[in-house]
Amino acid sequence: SLAHSEIQRKKFEPSFLQHELHLRFPSELKWIDKANQLMEKVLQKPFGQNKESYLAVKSSVREAIDNANRHGNKEDNKAHIDLAYLLDKEKVTVSVKDCGGGFDYRQYLDSIKGKEATELAERRSFDHLGGLGIALMLKCSDKLSYNHKGNEVTLLKFLAK
Predict the structure, then answer these.
(1) CB under 8 Å, gap of 24 or more: what pairs does 108-113 form?
(2) What is the pLDDT of residue 109?
(3) 68/120 Cα distance (integer angstroms)
(4) pLDDT digits (tens, 9 = 90+) for 20-69
(5) pLDDT at position 56, please?
(6) What is the rounded CA–CA span in Å between residue 90 and residue 143?
(7) What's the rounded Cα separation, in Å, for the pair 17 and 84?
(8) Count of CB atoms situated within 10 Å of the CB of 40
(9) C-alpha angle 27/121/30, rounded to 5°?
(10) Which pTM value belongs to this model?
(11) DSSP assignment letter at 160
């Protein structure tokens, strides 16, 4: 995954990463809330002056954590969520992984290409296909990718120059 390759890059370029954070927490609302609150604080440093980017990446991370809990872990409080946050001189990378079996993310990515959020919301009300949260993450990040299994999403947001 992208987060893994960035961690490997640190071995060769130790000064490249400015901040690294790894969290593992249970799929329980109190821990999810704490993780979201912590991420809000952590994300303020690189994006504090750019409110639009801060809100976008904060929303993307919140959505990824919520999806991991609801869809990946099926709200099983015995399961956990892994989150990796990497800040370097150019970008923020956040990876969120659940314990679930994954899903066919390609189907969702293909179904939302070129569509506006209002179209997705209307479609969801008719056929329950979803994809609105993925569309939000895609719109709010500069790059979105999944691992092959579909149980880990990586969000990348470039810092303003």
Answers:
(1) 108/134, 109/134, 109/138, 112/138
(2) 86
(3) 20
(4) 999 999 999 999 999 999 999 999 999 978 999 999 999 999 999 999 99
(5) 95
(6) 13
(7) 13
(8) 13
(9) 20
(10) 0.84
(11) P
